[in-house]
Each structure stands twice: as C-alpha cells, then as structure tokens.
Design a protein that fits this description.
The structure is a single chain. The chain is of the alpha/beta class. It is built from twelve helices and ten strands. The strands form two sheets. Strands 1, 2, 3, 4, 5, 6, 8 and 9 form an eight-stranded mixed beta sheet that branches. Strands 7-10 form a two-stranded antiparallel ribbon. The termini are far apart. It binds 2-acetamido-2-deoxy-beta-D-glucopyranose (3 copies). One 2-acetamido-2-deoxy-beta-D-glucopyranose (NAG) binds next to loops. It is an enzyme of class 2 (transferase). It is a single-pass type II membrane protein. Pfam families: Galactosyl_T. Belongs to the glycosyltransferase 31 family.
Length: 363
C-alpha cells in the first residue's frame, strides 16, 4: 500500500525521472524490513505451539490431541486449525463417547420413573449394593411416584469377577457396566458415564440423583423436596453446596489437581459428590459442556465447572441441614429429618434405615 501510493504519487503525477526512482528505491528499502518484521510477528503469534496441559489420566488414544504437544510432534500441532483443536478436546479421556456399556438395562425406564437414583460403586462392593438393595434401593414407589435405583460400575479385575458380576446382574437387573478402568482417579469418567446413561436411556425421568454407595438416603424427605411447588423442574441441582473451595495443590493429597489440569486457584460453587439431585435436562447439557472442558479427577468439582460454563448455579436446598455428610450423633430423631448422610459401613446403612422405619412406625 505505502509503496504503491508513493509510486503513484511520485511516478505517475510527475514523469519518470531519476529522482523519482531513487525516492521509490529508498522507500522500498525502508518498507521491506518493516514488512518482514510484521510478517515474522504474525507467524510467531499464530503458529506459536499451543502448550496443551498434561493430564493425569492415562489417555485412551495417545496419538490424539494431548500428546501432540510433545517435542517431536510440535510441528503437527502447529498446523492444527482451531476447529481441529476443538475436535480433539471433544475426545478427551473422560468423555462418554469413548466408552460403551457392557451390562445395560435399557428398558428400565419404560416404567417412567419420576426419580432415578444412580449409584457409582466399585465392582467388588457387593455388600454395599446389597445394603442399598435391602433399604432405600428397594423403594420403587415413594408418595405415589416411581423411583428407580441402578448401580454403575467400570471394568472388573478379571473373567471370574466379571462372571460373578453378570450373575448378580441376572439376579437383580440393576447393574450398568461400562468399559473404563474402575479406579478412584477415574471417578470423573464414572460420573460422565452416569450422565450419559441418564441422557440416552432415561430422558423422561423428572429428576435424577447421583448418590454414593456409602450413603443413607431418606427418600420420603427427598420426595417432599422434589414435589414442593417451588422446586424448579429445569436447570436444577442441589445437595451439600461447596463454596469458595481452594484447589488442592499438595501432591500428597488424594484431591491433588495440578495447575496444568485446572489453572484457577478456586473451584466454582459445586455440589458435594456424596449425593446430588438434579433435573433430568442436566445430564445432556453437562455432557455437551464437558466436550470442551479439560477433565480432572475431582468429579464433583468437574461437574461444577461444566455447570458454570452452562451458566447454571447449584441451588441452596430450602433446608441445607437435610444434606448432611458425617453426623456427629446420628440419633433417630435427626435421621428422620435428613435427606442424606454418610454411613460408615454397609451395615450402618441398614441400621440407619431400620431406626428411621421404627420411628415412623411408632408415630
Ligand atoms: C488412535 O486414533 C487413530 C486416528 O483416529 C487411529 O488410527 C488409531 O488406531 C488409534 N489408536 C488407538 C490405540 O486406539
Ligand atoms: C424389598 O421389599 C419387598 C417388600 O416390599 C421385600 O419383599 C423384599 O424382600 C425386599 N428386598 C430386599 C432385597 O430386601
Ligand atoms: C482410567 O480409565 C482409562 C480408560 O479405561 C484407562 O485407560 C486408565 O488407565 C484409567 N486411569 C486410572 C488412573 O485408573
């Protein structure tokens, strides 16, 4: 532009004389380095290697996305377009599209449950499942509303354990199994697979709950909350709210999350993973949001970051004390008021349950 207009001004208006050519030559000499400088800047900016965070997950497909940041492949990474970058993030290890169900109960939702309880549990925790099956998991109707309880497990240790699990599944028809390695660090995968099951197998339910296998759950009280006229039917999630939580940077902690995985110092408000209840529009939305969110191993905080991206704030329960964690003194009187509390063993789930039933029968 600058050179062109100078050439025009100088060489068309006046005739081509020597001075004019000297002037243009001088201008070219000045402009070319400038141009080169600008181009260099542009290239440096747009093709700067995007440093991708290392994840603490073992990646399903090492050839995709995350590893591209390693030295040898920087060039390939540099040439990826934004679109491709988003595509590869879509396939991160926690995304349910990486997994499939080995055991499934796709017809369970034909009963049109009002509430679906999804219990993540390790394959070997038969005692926990049986305690739940004989207590709150055995309630198929609460205040006239259908309730469904299912357990979600990952891969078993071997063929023998798998056989036992399949036997248990035939007996109870309440197991859903997906093909990821079942481990503590993979709880985010488990949660997203739960969300996937709800979104694809049970979108007609009104509410769902992710509830841990060591929880006492009072379904009467939960149903009172869900049937209350003020309880939203969409974009709703409640439980034990976690505000203003610092990300744990102590490498010795089991809650450790690296800055590469989650750079901000605090988590957005989230609902403690022991038990959160949500409207059934959320599973699909959470999975959608998770596509572009780097996974990290704290499942509840991760759900919180997906919710934040969706612009959905966890709701404070009308009586937050109903969502307990550990109760100092779990007397009958208090147990009959709570919605959730942590039990210290499968046996204690049954004790809590029987205590509350006795109180109800004495009324
Ligand atoms: C990883 O993905 C590439 C391309 O999508 C595919 O060719 C390759 O077989 C995959 N590898 C594994 C281990 O799944
Ligand atoms: C579930 O409840 C029914 C009665 O409603 C009872 O007959 C059955 O034994 C219970 N199941 C378990 C596993 O406790
Ligand atoms: C998490 O699950 C994936 C998929 O099954 C597996 O490759 C990985 O090893 C697991 N990670 C841990 C820490 O168990």
């Amino acid at each position: 532009m600058a050179i062109g207009s100078m050439w025009k001004r100088c060489c068309l208006a006046q005739d081509r004389d020597l001075i004019c050519h000297i002037k243009t030559g001088f201008a070219l000499l000045l402009t070319l380095p400038l141009l080169l400088f600008v181009i260099t800047c542009f290239y440096n900016f747009s093709f700067k290697p995007v440093k991708h965070p290392q994840t603490s997950f073992n990646l399903v497909n090492q050839t995709q996305s995350y590893n591209v940041a390693t030295e040898g492949k920087k060039f390939v990474w540099n040439l990826l377009t934004d679109h491709q970058i988003i595509q590869t993030v879509h396939h991160h290890v926690a995304h349910p599209s990486n997994y499939h169900f080995i055991l499934d109960e796709p017809d369970k939702c034909k009963q049109n449950p009002f509430l679906v309880l999804m219990v993540p549990v390790a394959p070997h925790q038969v005692d926990a499942r049986n305690a739940i099956r004989s207590t709150w998991g055995n309630e198929s109707s609460v205040q006239g509303k259908a309730v469904l309880t299912l357990f979600l497990v990952g891969l078993t240790g071997g063929p023998e354990a798998q056989q036992q699990l399949e036997e248990e599944s035939r007996q109870h028809r309440d197991l859903v199994q997906s093909n990821f390695v079942d481990s503590y660090l993979n709880l985010t995968i488990k949660t997203l697979v739960i969300m996937d099951w709800l979104a694809t197998r049970c979108p007609q339910a009104q509410y769902s709950m992710k509830v841990d296998s060591d929880m006492y759950l009072n379904l009467e009280n939960l149903m009172n909350l869900l049937l209350a006229p003020n309880t939203p039917r969409e974009n709703y999630i409640t439980g034990f709210l976690m505000w203003d939580q610092n990300v744990i940077r102590n490498k010795k902690s089991k809650y450790y999350v690296s800055e590469e995985l989650y750079p901000e110092p605090k988590y957005p408000t989230y609902v403690l993973g022991v038990g959160y209840v949500f409207s059934s529009d959320l599973p699909k939305k959470i999975i959608e949001a998770s596509k572009d969110m780097k996974p990290f191993n704290i499942e509840d905080a991760y759900v919180g970051t997906c919710l934040k991206r969706l612009g959905i704030k966890p709701s404070r329960a009308p009586d937050p004390s109903q969502f307990q964690t550990y109760m100092k003194d779990s007397k009958r009187h208090d147990l009959s008021k709570v919605i959730t509390t942590i039990a210290r063993s499968p046996k204690q789930i049954i004790e809590f349950w029987q205590n509350v039933k006795k109180t109800e029968n004495n009324r």
